[in-house]
Design brief:
The protein is an alpha/beta fold. The protein starts with 8 loop residues before the first strand and ends in a 9-residue tail after the last helix. 49% of the residues lie in helices and 13% in strands. The longest helix has 24 residues. It has a single domain, classed as Rossmann fold (3-Layer(aba) Sandwich). Helix 1 packs across helix 8, helix 3 packs antiparallel against helix 4 and helix 4 packs across helix 7. It binds 2'-deoxyguanosine-5'-monophosphate. 2'-deoxyguanosine-5'-monophosphate (DGP) binds next to helix 4.
């Protein structure tokens, strides 16, 4: 009997409004249409108890010290790790909108220490691929459509972008940087091509951990 093939952990990262939600939805739809068991989720997962506190913080109804909110975002990922592992090992591919890298990028953009921010993420399941939708800081500066949530400010997003760039060069073996100013169709084709090659490659590999 051939061993059960695991699913892939595919993550989308980037600044607010970089197109992650559209691209993660389109990739999930494509994989499902090919009969590949696929589920989508996003972090923060606002439905858990911890997620509700995070939501209160993001919608500005609650203030918390930077260290506390950082660890709550991380805890929100840790609390779902068992479920994610089970699904991956059962053969389901997971498409995740934001992960540990957003945790690091948004906190470091506030002036916090990079290593301090990364430390509690270590041990979480390592993604097989990260699609980084990079919006140039100059184009972010032109965006006026940011909403009301705490981080949706151009200057802050430019700092977030700089941290994503740093992580992207550190983690270049599994990060795929994509120019977010391309059309949604072009982006989707690039992402689909990479993902379709990746799935059979990782299916027999053990899950790895962020280190
Ligand atoms: P989203 O639901 O993807 O729009 O994310 C909501 C906001 O939360 C967005 O501004 C990015 C931010 N965010 C997501 N994950 C984290 C995290 O782990 N830490 C921090 N500080 N911010 C995060």
């Amino acid at each position: 009997m051939s061993p059960l093939k695991r699913g892939a952990l595919i993550v989308f990262e980037g600044c607010d409004r970089s197109g992650k939600s559209t691209q993660s939805r389109r990739l999930a739809e494509l994989l499902k249409s090919k009969g590949i068991p696929t589920e989508s989720l996003n972090f923060p997962a606002r439905s858990t108890n911890i997620g509700q506190v995070v939501n209160g913080y993001l919608t500005n109804s609650k203030d918390l010290p930077d260290e506390v909110i950082h660890l709550l975002f991380t805890s929100n990922r840790w609390e779902l790790m068992g479920k994610l592992r089970q699904k991956l090992l059962a053969g389901t591919t997971l498409i995740v909108d934001r992960y540990s890298y957003s945790g690091v990028a948004y906190s470091v953009a506030k002036g916090m220490d990079f290593e301090w921010c990364y430390a509690p993420e270590r041990g979480l399941i390592k993604p097989d691929a990260v699609f980084y939708l990079r919006a140039a800081p100059e184009s972010l500066a032109k965006r006026s459509e940011f909403g009301e949530e705490r981080y949706e400010k151009v200057e802050f997003q430019s700092r977030v972008s700089a941290v994503f760039d740093r992580i992207c060069s550190n983690e270049s073996t599994y990060w795929h940087q994509l120019d977010a100013s391309q059309t949604a169709d072009d982006l989707h084709s690039l992402i689909a091509g990479t993902a379709e090659k990746l799935l059979p490659q990782v299916a027999t590999q053990p899950l790895d951990k962020l280190s």
